[in-house]
Amino acid sequence: MGLKAKRQGTSARIASPSEARTPSRGRLVIIGGHEQRDAESIILQQVAKQADGGRLLVCTVASDEPEAMWEEYRDAFGKLGVRRIAHLDIAGREEILARPPDALLKDARVVFFTGGGQLKITTRFAGTVLCSAVERFYRNGGTVAGTSAGASVLADTMLVSGEAESSHRIATNLLMAPGLGFIRDVLIDQHFAERGRIGRLLGAVAQNPRLLGLGIDEDTAVIVTRERTISVLGSGAVYVADAREVTYTNVAEESPERTLSIFDVRLHVLSQGDEFSLETRRPTHHFASAVENGRLQA
Question: Rounded to two decimals, what is the model's pTM?
Fold first, then answer.
């Protein structure tokens, strides 16, 4: 009887946030930075397409020069046929706590985060009523896009800083912080090949093999649909570092000056048209020209 009572009193296993949360009905456009910004831009064309007659909000919270950034993207999206473009300018946290500009989300189809500093986005924006409204907008079917800092902040964990060395040293200071969490169990690094960041991405997933590492080149984007599938768009590559089946890493065992060891990490390199399932962690190939010719929906 005592054993029976003990069993009845045992708590059920608590599901992780990844298991408990319903996948979003929206779409993310995550850009590695320095995307082409003229009428030929295949990436911004995709963002403009998602606006589909509704309002496109350009959020410059990450930038030190928000007015200049706003004017640049207003002109770029205007040339791509977007007629309803608004500036979501957040100078400080106190401002949006006192007067959250929720009305801007009415009739919005896209929220676009520009580049700058990702900690500016989280410290000024995360946890506010407005941030919750944007997340609801996304989970209910809206599109959220971000470039550079605006890309890395969309994940639940973001890389803030760390040396980009060809070989990662254990002592290298990788500063990671919570992001906005619009895509779960993923870590995003931008300007990837251009700044030689493969070492720091491997160092990051070695510290937490649960996270899938996405390294996105400049002028390249991943389109995330319902948090299930990513497809690649643009002129560069996307590097996917999957450490789930890693058998050994020396991160917690060797002295700090040692070089990183990591065994059985899986690395995929994807280019335009390729897709990757976040559920099975397997890639699928499609020809890049299929995207350009409209035969494959990005």
Answer: 0.88
- The secondary structure element, H or E, covering residue 111 is strand 108-113
Beta strands in 124-251 (DSSP E): 143-147, 155-161, 175-178, 183-189, 212-216, 220-225, 229-234, 238-242, 248-249
pLDDT surpassing 70 at residue 89: yes
- For residue range 225-276, what is the model confidence (pLDDT) as tens digits? 999 999 999 999 999 999 999 999 998 887 777 888 999 999 999 999 999 9
Provide CB contacts within 8 A for 42, sequence distance 6+: 36, 233, 234, 291, 292
CATH number of the domain at 108, please: 3.40.50.880
Q: Which residues are catalytic?
A: 148, 165, 191
Amino acid, single-letter form, for residue 140: N
Q: Do residues 162 and 175 make contact, with C-beta atoms less than 8 angstroms apart? A: yes
> How far apart are the C-alpha atoms of 58 and 84, rounded to whole Å?
11
- Token pair 């570092």 in the structure block, residue: 241
Residue 246's domain comprises 23-292
Residue with tokens 């093999």: 209
Strand-pairing partners, residue 253, are none
Nearest residue to 157 via CA among 182, 192, 132, 190: 182
b/e map of 182-193 (b: 16 or more CB within 10 Å)? bbbbbbbbbbbb
Residue 10 lies in a domain: no
- Measured between alpha carbons, how far is 187 from 179 in angstroms, rounded to an integer? 9
**H/E element holding 25?**
none
Domain count, the chain: 1
Closest among 138, 148, 107, 112 to 226, alpha carbons compared: 138
Please state, in angstroms and rounded to a whole number, the distance separating the CA atoms of residues 162 and 274.
29
Could you tell me which of 282, 288, 246 has the C-alpha nearest to residue 264?
A: 246
Q: Which two three-digit tokens encode residue 274? A: 């390729």
